[in-house]
Every structure is written in C-alpha cells, then in structure tokens.
Amino acid sequence: MTKIIGPYIKSKNTTSKMMLNLILALLPIIVFTVYKNGFLPYQAGKIDLIHIFYPLLFILLPSLVSFIIETLYAIVFLKKRNKDIIRYIRNSYSFFPGLFLGLVLPINMPIWIVLLGAAVATISKMIFGGFGKNIFNPALIGYLFIFLLFSSYFQVDGGYLNKLEVDTISSSTPLTNAVLVEGIGDYDSLVKPYGSLINFFTGMIPGAVGETSALLCLLALIYLTITGAIKWRIPVVYILTVFFITSFIGNINDLGMWYPLFQILSGGLMFGAVFMATDPVTSPTTCQAQILYGLFLGILTVGIRYLTPFPEGVFISILVMNIFARVLDIVGSKAKFDFRVSLIPYLIAWALIIGLGFYIGNNYVKDASKVDANFKIISKETIGNKTTYIATQKGYVSDIKAEVIINNEKVISYKVLEQSESFYYKIYDSNYLDTLVNNQFSLNNVDTVSGATVTSTSLKKLLQNVLKDYDESDIPIIYDEEEKDFEIINIENNEDKIIYNVNKKSFGGYLQLRITFVHDVIEEITVVNQNDSYFGLVIDANYITTIIRNQQQLEEIDTVSGATISSQAIKDAITKTIEDYSGKQTINE
Amino acid sequence: MIVGKKLDIGKDLSKYNKINSFLNPQYVYVPLVSGSDKNITVVVKKGDYVYKGSIIGKSKGNFRIPIHSSVSGIVIDFIEKSYLDGSKVKCVKIENDFKEQVISKKEVVTKISKYSKEDFIKVLQTCGVIGMGGAGFPTYVKYNTDKKVDTLIVNAVECEPYITADYVLVQDKMEELLEVVDAVMEINGIKEGIIAIKKSNNELIKKFYNYLGTYPKIKVVGVNNIYPAGWERGLITKVKGVDYHKLPLEKGIVVNNVSTMLAIYEALKYHKPLVERIVTFTGEDLKEPQNILVKIGTLASDVIEHIGGTVKENYLLIAGGPMMGSEIDDKDLIITANCSCVLLKDLVSDNDIVNCMRCGKCTDVCPAHLSPVLIKDNLKNVKNIKKLKAKRCIECGLCSYICPSKIRLRELVIEAKKKMDSGVK
Fold this sequence. Notes:
The complex is a heterodimer of chains A (about 600) and B (about 425). Chain A is of the alpha+beta class.
C-alpha cells in the first residue's frame, strides 16, 4: 500500500472550473459579435437571414477543427484508447485555439483559411507536447501562419468591415486608418470617422470578430479576476503601460486624453491583453515576472504600432514575449526572495518606456517629408508647360504604374498603366482617380476606398509623390497668352453704375467677381463663382465688406488666415479692377 | 505580511463539543522517541513495575530529556508502533493496573513565579516538557541560554484546519495560561509577553480582556484567519516585524505553543511530567468528533473505539492536521506529546490529477516565497532546485491545496528537498 502524502484536503477550484469561467467570460463577446456582425447588417438589409449566425459559425467551426485534430493526434500518436481518450478530451481543452483564432480574424476572411489556421494552431500546440507544454500561444501561431501566408485575405471583401460597415464607414480599422493619417493625427482624423470614443468602448467600430468591445473585455477582466481564472496582473499592467506611453506621446504633441484612450481601445489591445496575454500555459507564473511581462508587452506593442509598418502589434508582441516567459520566471522566482534581483529588468523596462515615449513623441513624422521608398519615377518629360510623369508606387499586390500629366502646376490627367491589384474594380467603380484629380490640392482629405484601402492609399500617395517632385524640381512656367491671371470679362454701364465682371485665378480655379462702382467708389462686390475649398472662411471673416470699407488702402488689409490664397486673390482682383477703372476715368476726363 | 489562504474548515466538527477524557486504557505503548530523536536508552526491562511518571528511557542525544511512563503497571513488552510522521518506533508496552501510582507525592507550588531560572530549566527538563505544536523540541533548551530574551510569544493560532485542541485548552485553562506566562516572564526577565490568537476567535479574545488588567505585561495580538498564520517565522514577522536567520532567539524571542505553556504550568505547579495531552479526534469519518484528554502512548484506535467508532470501514487515518499531517497506513498510531490531532477522512483518489497549466497559483500562495511550479519543472536538475531554494519549503501544503490541476506539489517539493540532500553528499 503506497502512502499518500498530504494535504488531504483540496480546494474546490479545478482546471475545468477555470476553463468554464473563461468560456462564461467569452459568451457576452460571442453574443455581441453575432449582434454586431450578424443581426445589425441583417436589420439594415445587407445580409440574408441565414447569415445572422455566420459570426457564430466563424468561431465554432475552427473550434471544431482544433478539437478534431487534437483528438486524432491523441489517438494516432499518443495511442490513447477508450476511457483514456475520453479523459484526455476532458482535460485538454482542445477547442480553445480554434475559438480564439476565430475571434481575432476579420469576419470576411474565407472560412477555409480560418480552418487551416485552426489546424496549424493545434498542431503547433501538439508539437510542443500538448496542453501545458507549449511555449507559444497556439491561436496566435495560427494567426501568424495566416498573416504570413494569406496576408492579402485580411483585405478581402472589405476585410475587417462587416457588410454594414462597408457602406457606412469609409475607412478600415481605426489603427489601419491611423497609419494612413499623416503625422500623429488628430481627433478628427483618428476618432471622428468612427463616431466617438464611446463607440470604441462599446465595440461599434470595425475590427476582428471578437475583439472590438473594450467594455465586454473589461467586464471579462473583472469577472475572471474575481473568480481567479486568469493572471490579472498581466492585462492590467499591459493596458496601463500602453496608456502611459501613449499619453506621454499625446502630451508632447498637445493631444488630449482622448489620444491614449484611443490607443488602448483600438487594435484588439483589450482582447489581446485579457484573453491572449493571460494564456496560463505561455505566460509567466511568478508575480514580478507577470508584471515585467505586462510592461514589456506594452513597450513592444507601442514600438510596433509607431515604428513598423504593422498597425496593431498586440499579437506579435504576445508571441515575442512568449519566448521570454520562462526567462522572466527565473527572475521572478528569485525576486520572491530578494526584490533587488528584478531591479535591472525593471530599470530596462522604465528606460524603454520613457525613451520610447520621448522619442516617438518628438520624432514621429510619418513619411510626409521623407522620401517614399515605395515610389519610383520612371520617366519625366516637360514640353512647354506640360510635364508627363510615369511613376510606380507599391500597391497591395505589386507596383502600380501610372501616368500623371501636369499642366501649369495643375494635374490634368491621371491614368493607371499597369496594376495587378485584387480589388481594382472598386477603384474603378468609384471613379477614385477622378476624385483624386478633382481634389488635387487637398489630397489629405480624400477618403480611401473601403475594401481597397491599401490600393487607394497607394494611388493617393503616388499622386502626392509626383506633386512633391514637381514642386521641388522648379519647372519654369511659361505664361501663355491664353492663361491669364486676371481678366476683365466685360464692363456694364448702367446709368450712374459701372459694373465690372472679372475673372481671377485663385486656389481652386477661377474666381468670378462682379464689382459695382457708384460715383467712383466700389459699392458692391458679388462673388459670382468660386471653387476654393476654404472660401467659407472668407465669407465668415466679412472680408468683402472689409475690402469695400478700406478700398482706398487695400494694401493694408490682412489676408484671411486659413484662406490666404483666396483672400489674396480677391484683393488682387479688386486692386487690378480699380487700376483699370481709374485708367478709364482719367481718359474720359 | 504572511502570504496564505483562508482555510477555516472542519473546526466546527469538534470546537463546541465537550472535552472528554480517556485516561484508563488497558495498555499504553510509550514510544522511545523525543521529537525527532529516536536514540533512546531503555532503563526498564520486561516484568518491571513502573509508577506513573517513572523514567523508562533517556535520550542519548544533545538534549537530555527523560521518557516517562504515563500509567502505573507492568512492562510487558517492547514492540514497534507507528509514530506521527508515519515511521515505526520502538515502544514500551505497559499493562495498566489502573492505580495511577506515583513514586512520591510532590507539594503543590503556590507561587510558581518564585522559581530561579536554574530550577525552572531543571524542572522543564526532568518533567520532559517538549514542544507540543508538532516538532517535539525540548522546551528547556529554548530558555537555557545566556542570551537576553525580551519577548515570549505564545502561539495559540492553531491555523491547521480541523484542529481545535489548543482552542478548547485556551478556553478551559485561560487563568492558568496567563499565570504561567507571567511566571515564565518573571523567572526569565522577559519584558514582553504576547499571546497570538486568530482574530476570528473573538470570544476568546474578549475573555482574555477580562484578565489583562491583572497581567499588564501580557498582550493579546490577533492574527488574520489564514493558513499558515501559526508558522513560527511568519508569526514573528507579523507580531514583531523582524526576521531571523536560524532561531528566533537571535532576536531575543522565544515562541512556545499554548499546550506547551500549560505543560510548563503543570510541571511548575505540580512537578507533573508530560504524560497526557488533549488531542482532537475528528474528521467526517468519525462518529463523534471531539477533543479528548488521553495518556501519552495510548493507541489511537483504542481512543476511536472508546468514543464511538467510525462511520465507514475504509478511511484514511491521519496523524496531525489535514495539511501537514501524515497518513498512517497501518492505522497503528500511538499518541505522543506532539500529536495534536487524529483525523479520519475518506480515501482520496488520484484520478483527478491533470496537466499543469501554469496558472501560477502555487507561487502566489507560497508563504515561504517559493515557486513550486518551477521546482516541479526542474525536479531532475539538482542545480536548478538549489537555485529555487527548495530547502526553504515549510511543507505547509498550500501549493497542493490550491492547485486546480490537483497536482501534489508538496510531495514533489519534499522530493526536491531530498534530492538536494543527496546531491550535497
């Protein structure tokens, strides 16, 4: 008889209870995704009734694949039979990799890729020896596999946007959008396209199937912490670290508190922190190691978001930190006896946090002024005022080759010569090239085409790069007789009124003015026609009234800030009209 | 702060029941053991008549403690019985003549604080007073020092689940306890006396307050109701805010279990050797759980039979509490002075053990700041086990208790400790 060594009482907590709690915490998230990605598009008439539960299928099918593969693996390679296999199934929680994978992918990812990813996820777990032995988070290995081999499918059919969002939101996920925004961005460009931060909190923004609702992730965090089902220190420290660094960055750039909130509510950070970073098997077991793990996860995530072309960074950070989990545990186990052991890692972490915040805060300028390595001019030819560019810009699949013709500082033609983009028809359908040409002076305000975000961004960048080159190359402008800066269309003589109709070149084209003289004094100026973007500012500033009042000292009138060109153009037009009028009056006398 | 876990279970089984006694077993089997010291010279032979309190064995080790007979009667045999750590130990089997004969009646000492320090130490030694909390270390040794002792801590925490022997003792003998604490302090020139008790035992703390006016030097300190709040090192950190290297004496502190204090009382007052103690007989498989005063050397099975027997035929017999106690597989346990509890529980199965998922609960809960999960991982690597300081394990069992995968971590860490020992050799 073998003697049993105590203790002879055990806590009621079991592994299966912890896993059950995890599932309970995930349930609201699953319900929410069915509501957001199934019910709402159906209600809006975007999908059929049967597709309401597609999001559920999107999560359950990969779970099933994970389960089947692990069970087969246990039967074939581990030679488990009968009772053993039932016991094995009960204790291996084999459906989780597929479940989590489904939750972190875009809803429009073809299901066969998701299932393949789930298979890879489970196999990656089995290679390391199964539940409890794997070093890397299996679901994230599946994610990485899809990311490396099927990256183009992240954009398929609107990518992260469900059928309703495709029509209502012109951009992609908030962080993909943030990459496209020039420089660090502002509230209008980062948050406004999605409504407000409340939407970020509730989860009504585009994103992976299960990761958008920060609220539900936080509730899950609270529930799982109270029930003791997760290592709560990791998500808490992780989220706070990202918040801290980004508020540092935001502060340097005079952005409000919305900025760090935007950062922690975006890109699946909450979901990743609560559910993926806390995967018990692949994260550290000791207290200090968990805190350090959270700190470095935050540092890596911020680093990846700002310093690499990848917009999100949560999952890559977790996979990288998985490698260090056991190393950190060595530090953590020693720190339990003597905290000083962990001082060096803490110092490194804090140096990185401060350094990263300071560096990004002060130096983060997204390619606006730099040479774009993805852009190449193939030929440039100037005949008279007409310059023809043939250039390439890296697109989604490969380089896009296009011809841009600029006449007198103005783009008059933009044609794509060669491309092999997957969703080019969307560009074509939306007349995107025309939109770009029409808004050539305010390209930053042009939205991308949803479902072809990368391609449309590339096309925009190509045009911007060509214009930049054109501006920098000082091509002499030969003023043509035909192209007049100022032109008197006609002069009407109406009893004591003399009315000038004039054209003046301005910001967005010609500005047509009607100027009425009564007794040698301008009594009225009417803007007949204008194409200037910020002309509203001119009106708001009562600029025209100012001109009429100060028509004797026009040179002393300041231009309207924000509409300098437009207001200057009006002033010049009036000056020239007065010159003409005075000349004519002198002759008459 | 002591890391630990609220583990306040099983106490109600015996806590409020009447304290009984079973002082007339037909045979006693007085074990020739003192604490962990089994190197005892027998001074009686078969057929000898012994009085209650006669010396029947003497320790050969560094700490000389006599072994007393707990009854009067005839030595009839020397046989092996199970000791509380599960090992076999040689016992002197004495047939009780039920006369309770003693060699000579000693006078009752009215004022026990009148002892000189030398006499005090001598009385503790001759009466064989040992630590009754579990270790069984001779008590006189703690006081037999030139070092200045400033603080006496009386450990009445009793944090192990199920055990209530100290609780009922404090309730029953509070005046005696305070008297002996005061006397020991006066004899040894100790300035501060602290009685450490669980905060949750309000009724006892309130009762103490009635007496404290009489004993201004004695404080009652409440500790949190967690396991292992009664662990010596943790308790000293909690009540005095200091840590020590090997022994509390380094910091001028002596810690005694509350049962030991009352054994000191009986030794000082009546010159009574340590031949009886209150033991908690409890557990779901016992018909009538209770605290019972028994002779040292009584067979646990005799006591169980005396108090009404068991519920089931198959059960686990555990010497000590459910956390740190040991299973006695032959159920042939003899009661010793350091055995505070006999626990009867259902058999446990191994089927519920699953793979470790590295949740880290064992590292969070360990009061000795160990990382049991990492010790488990490195069991094959003695060098790593050393780095993980497995030796510091106090075997409290919380890691096994807390583990959701039901892995028997305490067993693994004990194994690691053994490996370290053999590795050193």
